[in-house]
Amino acid sequence: MGAIVPLSILLPLFYGFSRWELLGKTAKIVLAYLLVSAAINLAGDLFAFNKAANLPLLHFYTAIEFVVLTTLYKYLLTGNRIRAAIVALQMGFVLACIANALFWQPLLSYNSYSLSLGAIIIMLLSMNYFAKLVVEVPQGKVSDLPEFWFNTALLLYFSGSSMLYVFSNFILQVSQTQFYIVWGIHAVFVLLMYILFTIGFLKCKK
User: Fold this and answer.
1) CA angle 108, 189, 27 (to 5 degrees)
2) Assuming Cys at both sites, which of 18, 73, 108, 150 could form a disulfide with 125, CB separation 3.0 to 4.6 Å?
C-alpha cells in the first residue's frame, strides 16, 4: 500500500505521455487526472514525512478530482442538457465540499461525506455511458474504444471505494486491523484502475 500501489501510477503516466500524439480529448483528461493524483499523493507523503497534517489536501483533492472526472463525461455523454447538468453538478459539489469542511467534517478530519457523494455521482455517470454504448452501438469492437477502458476503470474503482468512504470512520473505531485490511482492498482497486487506464492509452489511435 505504501510503495507498490502509489508507484504503479507511473505505468499509465508513461504510456500516456509516450503516446501523447495519439491521445484524444478524453485520454488527455484522464492523463490530467493521473497527474493531479500523483502530485497530491506526493505532497501528502511529504507532509506525513515531516509529521504535518495532510488531511486538508484530501479535502482539496476531492473537489479537484470530481471536477476533472466529470469534465471527462462532458465529452463521453452527448446532449446540451447533460453537459449543463454536469456543470451544475461541478459547481454544486465544490460548494458542498466547502460546506462539509466548514460545518461537518473539518479540514483535519477525514471527509467521508464528500468522498461518498462524489463516488456515487461518478458511478451514475459511468453507468450512463455504458447505457449509451448499448443504445448507440459503435462501429467495430467496443473493447477497441479507449473510453470503454477509462470508464470501466472509474466504475470499478468508485464502486469498490464507495462503501469504504461511507464506513471508514466507523471501521477505524471498531478495529484498526480491519481498517488496514479494508484499505488494502482499496489499494487493489487502485492498482486495477491504473492497469485499465494503461490499456485505454494503448488503445488510442489516430
Assistant:
1) 95
2) 73
- Return the closest-CA partner of residue 154 out of 187, 180, 192: 192
**Separation between Cα atoms, residue 9 and residue 144, nearest integer Å:** 22
Confidence (pTM): 0.92
What total of structural domains would you count in the chain? 1
pLDDT < 50 regions, the chain:
none
Q: Are 6 and 41 in contact (CB under 8 A)?
A: yes
CA–CA distance, 145 with 205 (Å, rounded to integer): 9
Reading the block at residue 21, the C-alpha cell is 500524439
The predicted-structure confidence for 103-131, as pLDDT tens digits, reads as follows 999 999 889 899 999 999 999 999 999 99
Whether 155 and 126 have beta carbons less than 8 Å apart is answered as yes
List pLDDT tens digits, range 74-84: 999 987 889 99
- Copy the grid coordinates of residue 74: 462532458
Question: Which residue range is the domain that position 169 belongs to?
Answer: 4-202
